Amino acid sequence: MAPGELAVCDSNFLSVANVTGNSRQNDATDALVTVTQVKVTLQLNITIWVPNDATQHIIEHEQGHREISEFYYQTADKIAQQIAAKYLGRQFQVSGADLNSAIDKALQQMGAEITQEYDKELNPEPAQERYETLTNHGSNDVDAKDAVSQVLNNATVSPNAPATIPKN
User: Fold this and answer.
1) Which of 96, 121, 142, 149 is the most interior residue, by most CB within 10 Å?
2) 7, 9, 160 from 83: Cα distances, Å
3) What does R_g of the chain's alpha carbons equal in angstroms?
């Protein structure tokens, strides 16, 4: 925990994109690759740390962070699907002395790009920060459930656009 923190909710959004393709070899060192499949595996791991003597208010505050993360995770598959769809059918040239290795490397790089784009699109941080502002990091009397409701009612989560939280 960081200095001054009484408790922590750690939400870890994980994604791994595996890209496969068919290649048509032009010669010994060149091939045209067509992306035929993109499989994105998603996971959300949430760990909440609270001290043994934590008040109910602090526990509820950390549960609020969990609820916000779970809210964003509800649309994670749609966001990943939309991103992956842009890569299906994509064609690119690959060159190298070891053509199979070059193809594998290019497909892995594409998987990394998909993962980066997913991480950018599924950004719950503005909502979490808004929640912290409303609750003053759990140190004021604002009810956690009310704060979560307020944050999520103002949240825009769409598979067509990045999630945003308007500033009030």
Assistant:
1) 121
2) 35, 28, 10
3) 21
Least Cα distance to 68 among 166, 167, 160, 150 occurs for 150
Task: Give me the helices (H) in 22-136, please.
Answer: 56-73, 76-85, 99-121, 125-135
The partner residues of 8 in beta bridges, in order of sequence, read: 49
Could you report the per-residue pLDDT of 111-156, keeping only the tens digit for each?
A: 999 999 999 999 999 999 999 999 999 999 999 999 999 999 988 6
Task: Count CA within 13 A, CB hemisphere, residue 117.
Answer: 20
Rounded-to-integer distance, Cα 81 and Cα 17, Å:
11
Whether residue 42 contacts residue 55, with contact meaning beta carbons closer than 8 Å, is answered with no
Q: Hey, is 9 helix, strand or coil?
A: strand
71 within 8 A of 50, measured Cβ to Cβ: no
Q: Distance between CA 158 and CA 29 in Å, rounded?
A: 43
